Amino acid sequence: MPAADERKGVARLDVAPMGLVWLKGPQRVDFLELERALSMAARIHKGSNAPLGKTSASAVICCPTSEDDLAAEVSNIRVSAPDASVLAFASGPNLQLARATLRAGASGIVHSGMPPEQVLRAVSVAIRGEVVLPREPLRQWMDEQRPPDLSVLSARQKEILELVADGLTNAEIAGRLFLSGSTIKQHLRPAYKALGVRTRNEAAGLLRKSSRTKERR
C-alpha cells in the first residue's frame, strides 16, 4: 500500500522518481516535514554519514552551520557523493544563504516554509542540473545581476553620482562643479529615488556596477 500511495503522489505532482536523497545533518536538525514531502518520490537517508552500499545519492540536502562553512560542506559532500546535486536547507527564504550556496557550487536552497509540492519540484529540478531558489531570493538575485538603468538620471545627476562613486564629499563635489552644497543635495535626493536607493553608498555601488558591466561588454 505505501508504494501505491507514493506512486499516486508522484503522478499527482508530476515528479519523476528521484532515487536516493541524503538529508545530511546532525540528529538535532528537524528534517521531518522535508522527509515527508520527499518520501513521495525518493528513498531517504538521514544522518551525517554518507549512505552505505552501492547506491549513491542523487541529491544531498545539507544544513550548514554558517554561510562561511558552506563551501567546505559542499566540498566534503562531493567526496562522498560526487554525482549528487547539493542543496542547502534553511528555516526560510534567505538571499544571503542563496548567494553563498551558488558561490559554493551547489544548486540552491530549500526551506521549511515550502509546501511539499514545491520541495519535490525543487529537488527534481536540482537533480536535472538546474539552479533552485525560492521566488523572493530568486527575484532579488536576478535584480542584483541586472545592470542598473542610469538613463533615468539627468546628465547633471549622473555627473554628481560619478563623483560620489569616486569618494568625493558633497562639499568637494560642489567646489569642483562650482555649485552650492544645497544644490548638490537637491540633485542627489531625486537621483536616489530614481535609482531606488537610500544612501550615497548604495548609489555609488550602482554606479560602479554599471561601469563593470560596460567593461565586460
Describe this structure in words.
Helix 2 packs across helix 5, helix 7 crosses helix 10 and helix 8 crosses helix 9 (181-195). The termini are far apart. By secondary structure, this protein is α/β, with parallel strands linked by helices. It is 52% helix and 12% strand. It has helices at residues 2-13, 32-38, 70-80, 95-103, 116-127, 135-145, 155-165, 170-177, 181-195, 200-216, and strands at residues 19-24, 42-46, 59-62, 85-90, 108-111.
CATH architecture of the largest domain: 3-Layer(aba) Sandwich
- In the CATH hierarchy, the third-tier topology of the largest domain is known as Rossmann fold
Q: How many beta-strand segments?
A: 5
Mean pLDDT level:
83
Task: List the strand order in the largest sheet.
Answer: 2-1-3-4-5
Structural class category = alpha/beta
Which regions have little confidence, pLDDT < 50, spanning 5+ residues?
1-12
As for the number of domains, it is 2
The top level CATH class name of the largest domain: Alpha Beta
What is the 3D form?
Answer: elongated
Oligomer state of the chains in this structure: single chain
Helix-residue proportion: 40-55%
Radius of gyration: 24 Å
Q: How far is the first residue's CA from the last residue's CA?
A: 59 Å
Number of alpha- plus pi-helical segments: 10
Q: How would you spell out the order of helices and strands?
A: HEHEEHEHEHHHHHH
| Fraction in beta strands | 5-15%
Main beta sheet strand tally, sense and closure: 5 strands, parallel
Question: Superfamily at the CATH H level of the largest domain?
Answer: Response regulator
